[in-house]
Design brief:
Elements: E1 8-12, H1 17-28, E2 32-37, E3 49-53, H2 59-66, E4 71-74, H3 83-103, E5 108-112, H4 140-153, E6 159-164, E7 167-169, H5 176-187, E8 193-194, E9 202-204, H6 205-216, E10 235-239, H7 247-258, E11 263-264, H8 277-281, H9 290-302
Parallel strand pairs: 1-2, 1-4, 2-3, 4-5, 5-6, 6-10, 7-9, 8-11
InterPro entries: Epimerase_deHydtase (IPR001509), NAD(P)-bd_dom_sf (IPR036291), NAD(P)-dependent_oxidoreduct (IPR051783)
Protein name: NAD-dependent epimerase/dehydratase domain-containing protein
GO molecular function: aldehyde dehydrogenase (NAD+) activity
């Protein structure tokens, strides 16, 4: 098998919150990275990164960018767009890239999915990879992410890994939970109104990027048993989550840093956990605990890093 320094890894959304950190993690492993972006000059500035500008849903561009690659990591989802756009880019576009990767000889497609595909209603309990998925009324983002996963399950000729994180903590101007959500909480009471006992399931972006990079470089080998590794030639989901936390912990940190009061209610709430035992059995161990992640959040807000 080729060494990691010989591997060419394609990363879509390479200038994004998760994509940029994944590129850095891959570079640390000695891989060469083809960074797929939509605008020129925005790819991470690393010696091992080659910028490719284009739309991965275009069959010709997809075939060109994956030619000779070892693996593909997809991190793009147009969250916040209308459902038609999310469907076109994610549900229709991602399988185009996956099929091109398989036809081009790539061994793996590592897809950044989300734990939002799971039904996390008040009675759901703990959620592992066999848990029920959301229904069609769950909202544009969960439904289109669910449907992207289903579309990738129908692609053949390549090992597909669906990585499902919950809230992703970590600093950055496009970070939802360290930047965008706190901004909303500063403006609107409804944004920091919640049941304090509701679960806040999370993972740190750097720990997530480590898993994505380990999967793409095959540091985590395939297996015939999904509890020991991704199914060789199959489509395997894997949850990834940090330590347990509640909305009280997250909201208290944000509102305390912003100087506003949290608003608690006693509405129905999910109090289970995202079970990441499969990822742990594959060899992944998060390095950043809840206290460290929340302190990073607090310090970032206090120092104005959310601007």
């Amino acid at each position: 098998m080729a060494g990691e320094h010989d591997k060419v890894i394609v990363v879509t959304g390479a200038n994004g919150f998760v994509g940029a950190r994944t590129c850095a993690a891959l570079a640390q492993r000695g891989a060469r990275i083809r960074a797929v972006v939509r605008r020129k000059g925005v790819a991470p500035r690393l010696d091992s990164v080659e910028e490719w500008v284009g739309a991965f849903g275009d069959q010709r561009f997809a075939a060109e960018v994956v030619a000779g690659s070892s693996a593909v990591v997809t991190t793009v989802h147009p969250m916040g767009s209308d459902r038609a756009t999310q469907h076109r880019v994610a549900v229709e576009g991602t399988p185009v890239l996956a099929r091109a990767a398989g036809s081009g000889g790539a061994a793996r497609l590592v897809h950044l999915s989300t734990a939002a595909v799971y039904d996390r209603g008040p009675d759901a309990g703990d959620v592992d990879e066999s848990a029920a998925l959301v229904g069609d009324d769950a909202g544009d983002y969960p439904v289109t992410k669910r449907d992207t996963d289903a579309a990738l399950a129908q692609v053949h000729g390549i090992t597909r890994i669906l990585v499902r994180p919950p809230a992703i903590l970590g600093p950055g101007p496009t970070s939802i939970w360290n930047t965008l959500r706190p901004r909303a909480m500063a403006r609107e009471e409804s944004a920091h109104r919640t049941n304090p006992d509701k679960t806040f399931a999370w993972v740190h972006v750097d720990d997530l990027a480590e898993l994505l990079a380990d999967l793409a470089t095959e540091r985590i080998p395939t297996s015939r048993d999904v509890e020991r590794g991704p199914l060789d030639g199959g489509c395997t989901a894997v949850n990834v989550a940090g330590g347990p936390a509640t909305q009280r912990e997250y909201v208290t940190v944000v509102t305390g840093a912003l100087g506003v009061e949290p608003v608690w209610d006693d509405g129905p709430a999910w109090t289970g956990q995202i079970v990441a035992d499969r990822a742990h059995r594959w060899g992944w161990t998060p390095r950043i605990g809840t206290a460290q992640a929340l302190e990073e959040l607090r310090e970032g807000l206090r120092s104005g890093m959310t601007d």
